[in-house]
Fold Purine operon repressor PurR.
Amino acid sequence: MMKRSDRLVAMTNYLIEHPMELVSLPFFSEKYGAAKSSISEDLAIVHRIFEEEGVGYLASVSGAAGGVKYIPKVSATYSEKFIDELCNQLEDPSRILPGGYLFMSDVLGNPHTVRNIGRLFAARFSDVKIDSVVTVATKGIPLAYAVASFLDVPVIIVRRDPKVTEGSTVSINYVSGSSRKIQTMVLSKRSLQEGENVCIIDDFMKAGGTINGIKNLLKEFNANVAAIGVLAEAEDEEEDRVVEDYTSLIQIKNVDANNQQIEVIKGNYFHE
Amino acid sequence: MMKRSDRLVAMTNYLIEHPMELVSLPFFSEKYGAAKSSISEDLAIVHRIFEEEGVGYLASVSGAAGGVKYIPKVSATYSEKFIDELCNQLEDPSRILPGGYLFMSDVLGNPHTVRNIGRLFAARFSDVKIDSVVTVATKGIPLAYAVASFLDVPVIIVRRDPKVTEGSTVSINYVSGSSRKIQTMVLSKRSLQEGENVCIIDDFMKAGGTINGIKNLLKEFNANVAAIGVLAEAEDEEEDRVVEDYTSLIQIKNVDANNQQIEVIKGNYFHE
């Protein structure tokens, strides 16, 4: 039998590694050789500290098939601080590329930053029924995995070109919102079940042509788009925008390549 | 001031979210309002339970700039069980695709599986000096992030084609090992510092042409390849193999598309 202090370390580790997963009291009781009443007291401590630390809470599910579920959350203080730092980091004029694009690969290359972005979206979408996270290759991939790991659902990757390792695929053509070019998107037939509730995640949205393309491709699978999250949205595209119901963490404004100026502000995630 | 039970939950959460990061005793002491001697006792408990649970240990760094560092590890029992399950899952004949390829997108789409694969590689490479993890788009990306998150280093993504959002790039041509076709690889100039120690991660290796291509591209940055990890290696390629020093988790043998047969066994990770 484990002591309380030992159990708390083991249970904290277990719960963090299994977000959104229903864990029964008998499971913990057996695993750590403790009475269910002791486990209940342990879980009350974990719950309280998770709330105090702003990383989420334990939801209790009652009944015979009941237990607890770790729901990841982020405190408002923490998320605002995190996004403020991200905005500052991105406002560096040396990031401005020809065409008014912004170099973000280093930011998206930091696994800790990516995990935090995933936690923010997962916290926002944790009340929505989501069966899978869909993104399009390649920059959205790490963000999609970060969100999916907190929601405990699989990731499905839409490609620009078919590949032999995908097996049979469904493809669509769509018009890119900003460049007005015809592009292709491809998704493995085996990847989605009929009628799944999906969350679309991407790194960047201008007019929204790419996300609209994903939505059209998902229609071929009768999937229901339950949520859309983009790390960064470009301003100045509001009249041309073809996607309405999305959540953005940051907004990139006034990219002025000639004068090497740029403004990055909080996205609509923080508007409510 | 927090009670011991409360501190253990908070510290466990903090350490798991900050692997390979040196945390000083005064940091914890201040954060949780406890004497350094109490914090030391807490850390001893966390260390013991992490070892018992097979998820790693806390390394003590002495001296003025000292503290503790959570080093992720995986117990042999756990890693063998995990890989056995993975092999079983992949041996399903319905995964065989034309050309003897194997459908693995669903396995690689499971964030929990991907995180475990990352933990295995990170555990094996935790004694090697690694500054960044490099992969090539697209299937290696989630694995690279999983490894990097446990090693606390950035991810750098080699692309097949230049993209405006990468800024200036360095590119090379190389000959694919199996198809003998000339292919291109591109890496953003800003992505790597001179002389960095990198770990290459990819999902699949046949003769090793792709990984050899990455190695050649990295030479342009005077980077040092400190480790190579591939999830799956194909057998039957041993005589043509152009990469020697790699670690594989699984080996795919005898893919027989005509008779719908396939064998998947443990990789060289388990050979020592």
In short: Residues 211 and 243 of chain A are 7 Å apart (CA to CA).
